[in-house]
Amino acid sequence: MAKIELFSTPTCPYCRAVRNFLQAKGLNFTDYDITKDLDAFERMFKTTGYTTVPTLIINDKEVIIGLDEERILKAVNTL
Asked: Which of 11, 34, 36, 67 is the most buried (most CB within 10 A)?
């Protein structure tokens, strides 16, 4: 099973869309609120070089920024 990490903020509508998509597909994920979790924010920035949300990191190597349903499913099924 893929390790899925979502880096988000509570007011971001795109973050909500990604969260809803992952839940609808029955995928387990960890959701980090980067407004409250500075360590998660720093790890996201160190890994991606960006401060953009929503950011997904799948299996510590695949980075997806935004809601790209096809790419998310491909990453989850092939990694």
From this structure: 34
